[in-house]
Amino acid sequence: MIKGKNIILRHLKEEDLDWLIEMMNDLSYRGEYMWTYLKSPHSIRENFYNTGFASPQNELFVITDLEGNRVGRIGHFLTVPYSTAKEIGYSITGAHGKGYATEAVNLLRDYLFNSTELNRLEIKTHPENIGSQKVALRNGFQLEGTLRGVMLVKGKFTDSNVYGLVRKDWEALNA
Question: From edge to edge, which strands make up the β-sheet containing 142-153?
C-alpha cells in the first residue's frame, strides 16, 4: 500500500473485481478520450486469479480516498517489449477535480523510481484531454511529441500526445 496526503494506492482485492469489471466495461466511466472496446469479465477475473494484476511487467492499483472509498485505478506497464520504459495509465471515477489523479501519478512515479531500475516513464493522452495533460506536467513529465492516428476512439483514429520523464529529471525534481 502506498499512502499519500489524500489517497491510498493499493493492490486489488477479490472484492474489487465486480467494481473493476464495471469500470472497465461501462463506457460512461471512460469519458470521451478512451478506447471503446469492452473487456471480457472472464478474462479480467482470470488475470486477477493468475497474477493479481501484479508482475514486474505491469501492476494495477485501486485508488481510494483516506476513508477507503474507491475513486479510480492506476497502473504501469511496459511500453514495448524491447524497452524497459513503463507507461502510466489511470482513470478517476466520479471524483474529478479533487487532485486525485495528480497525486496518484506522483505516488506511482516515486514508487517506481525508488524501487526499480527504471529509467523512463511515459504518459500518453488524447490531444484534447487537457486534464490529463495537466496531470503529466504537474508531475514533471515533458511533452515529447504526438503519435498520429494511434488510438481508435468511437470508431475514429485519433492522435496521442506522449509525455516522458527520465530518472535524471525526476532526481532533479527531488533535489
Answer: 2-3, 7-11, 58-65, 70-78, 86-92, 120-125, 156-166, 142-153
pLDDT digits (tens, 9 = 90+) for 19-41: 888 888 776 666 665 666 677 88
Nearest of 54, 71, 78, 94 to residue 4 by alpha carbon: 71
Q: Which CATH architecture has domain 2-173?
A: 3-Layer(aba) Sandwich (3.40)
**Using an 8 Å Cβ cutoff, are 63 and 80 in contact?**
no
Whole-prediction pTM value?
Answer: 0.91
By C-alpha distance, which of 146, 157, 155, 11 is closest to 73? Answer: 11
Asked if 103 and 133 count as a contact pair (C-beta separation under 8 A), the reply is no
